[in-house]
Amino acid sequence: MPSLTEEEIKKEVMDLHQSVYEKFGYEMKYIRPPKGEFSEKTMQVTNSLGYKTVMWSFAYEDWNEEKQPDEEKAKEKILKNLHNGEIMLLHGNSKTNTNILDSIIKEAKNMGYEFKSLDEFER
């Protein structure tokens, strides 16, 4: 997004906002900059649109559909890096994530972790 004009940023964000609202009835209020790339300009524009920028505290190389990580190694990496307050970035296009997500959630809960929305997150 940093290479886009203010108008292009507004259009991209609001087109997505409208699409999510039409499909799910949900008013978006948080934004994660694509690839984690942001600038003062992108922050100012998204803030002016009423968005709060949220970054992740854990991610791993799962986005490349042609190079999916081994399921057992991915699960181990995710579970080994769990921490309080974690905002985990798992890409939805990852077949590995699709296959292991249920077991990750169950194991994390067995370890005493809870899953909450950003609105419920204690600051």
How far is the N terminus from the C terminus?
27 Å
Structural class: mainly alpha
Multimerization state: single chain
Helix content: 40-55%
Reading the helices and strands in chain order gives HEHEEHEH
State the major sheet. 2 strands, parallel
- Which residues form runs of ≥5 with pLDDT under 50? none
Mean pLDDT: 94
Shape annotation: globular
Strand order of the largest sheet: 1-2
Integer-rounded radius of gyration: 16 Å
**Beta-strand segment tally:** 4
Q: How would you explain this protein's 3D organization?
A:
This protein is mainly alpha-helical. The chain is 44% helix and 7% strand. The longest helix has 19 residues. The protein is globular, with a radius of gyration of 16 Å.
Layout of helices and strands:
Blueprint: H1 6-24, E1 30-31, H2 40-48, E2 52-53, E3 58-59, H3 71-80, E4 88-89, H4 95-110
Helix pairs in contact: 1-2, 3-4
